Each structure stands twice: as structure tokens, then as C-alpha cells.
Amino acid sequence: MLKIRILGSGTSSGVPRIGNDWGACDPNEPRNRRTRASVLVSTDTTTILVDTSPDMREQLLAAGVSNVDAVIWTHDHADHTHGVDDLRQLMHIRNGEPVRGYARPFTREQLEAKFHYAFFGRAGYRPTVALETLSDSLVIGDIRITVADQPHGGIVSAGLRFDSEYKSIGYATDFHEMTNEMRVLYSGLDIWVVDALRRAPHPTHPNLQQVLGWVGALHPRRAALVHMDQSMDYMRLTAELPPGVEPGFDGLEMRA
Q: Where does the record locate the signal sequence feature (predicted)?
């Protein structure tokens, strides 16, 4: 059974933002409390972590997960990478075996520059992650991953499709434009978890109207919105979204 767990459904500042800023979000609705964006994709035998957010420790504790078969980084921005140090505990659980990691060439270059010690070790400390280049297609356990580069401001992020036993899940975060390669990647999914930062336009993220248009064109069986800021109240969104589309929240699990 292929499934996805939304570990974090928030944007880079989370909800609430520091200063107890809930914006338009009702603080009494627990699904409005959002940590930084990350997901787990898994079957009965394989678990893949996508991104290492600054909230990764609490996210994995909440999910009851202490080991993964691989980590995939979508891009090198801080809200998707700065929990990398917490992979050290996973390495210890694996009896010193580094966690497998994958990133596109530019992202890999940036990660190795920023967190050199995590990938190469330092002063007697062994490497935490065995990092490889993320190719256009690979298989981890019983999950096939297909990748397309997504425009995200001046860089690209990795758009991801996961297939296993005729079921499919797509994860699209941190992009601002839908390319033809992305349309192919995300067509006909069972589940599409997709960035919908806010209602107003943004230069490097999609807004709600754009995402709903793509959902209508790509026809996922079910779609969940993530990477949402403090303007996106859970109950208000639930009332206005079309059938088959829902606001994601931290801890939501969906089975394809």
C-alpha cells in the first residue's frame, strides 16, 4: 500500500509565525498549526523522507519513525534542509551506517558546501549521509521515483512522482510555473500533494487559483494543499475547495 504522510504543511516561517502571528488562521483549530514542509512516502517495506526541515525531529517523533531507506532533497533552501543534523540520530540507529541521500546536481553542490561535515565527516566524526545525485528515474525498495525539474525563482526544485503496485503519488513543492515535463509527471495521479502558498500571487510559489486550475487539468483522484502561510485558514479552505481537494495538515496520512 503506497501512502504519504504530511510531516509539515507550512511555509518557511511556519504557522503561527514568531510573535504568535496567526494571521487569518484560527488559533483554536489545531490543523492550522503548521511546521515547515516535508513528507514521508512509504509502503509496507520502504520509507522515503522528502526534505529535512528545521522541525524534522518533532515531525519524525510524531510520526513514530526512527529509520528511513532514503532522503530526497527537493532543493537547498533553509526551510527544507536545516534539519539535516538530526539525521545523525538515524545514523546511530542504523549502527553507524550513513543514511542514503539524493539531490539534483545543483542542490547536491549547495548541500555539500553548507553541510560538508554531514556528508564527509570531520575530526573523527563519521559521515551522517551517503549523498548521491538524484537522477531522472530511480528505484528505492519497491517504490519507483520519477523526477522533473521545477522553476523556483532563480533555481530549480525537484518535482517527484512515486509509483508502486499501480498506485501513484506526486509531490510538488516550491515552484512557480508548470512546465510540460511537470504536466507529464503529475498527470493521472492517485494523490497529488501540492504547494499552494496563499491566495495572492507570489513570484516563486503558486497561488490557490493556479493550483486549482492545474488540479482541474491534471485530474488527480485526490489533492492536498501544503506549504501554506498564515492567510490560509483550514476551515475556510475546507468550505470553499472543490470535491477531491483538501487543505493538508501536519500528520495527515493518505493512502493511494
A: none
Quote the CA–CA distance of 236 and 240 in Å, as a whole number.
7
Q: What is the pTM of this model?
A: 0.97
Under a CB-based contact definition with an 8 Å cutoff, are residues 53 and 77 in contact? no
On the question of pLDDT at 15 being above 90, the answer is yes
pLDDT at 253: 98
In the predicted structure, residue 123 carries a pLDDT above the cut 90: no
Q: What is the CA radius of gyration of the chain?
A: 17
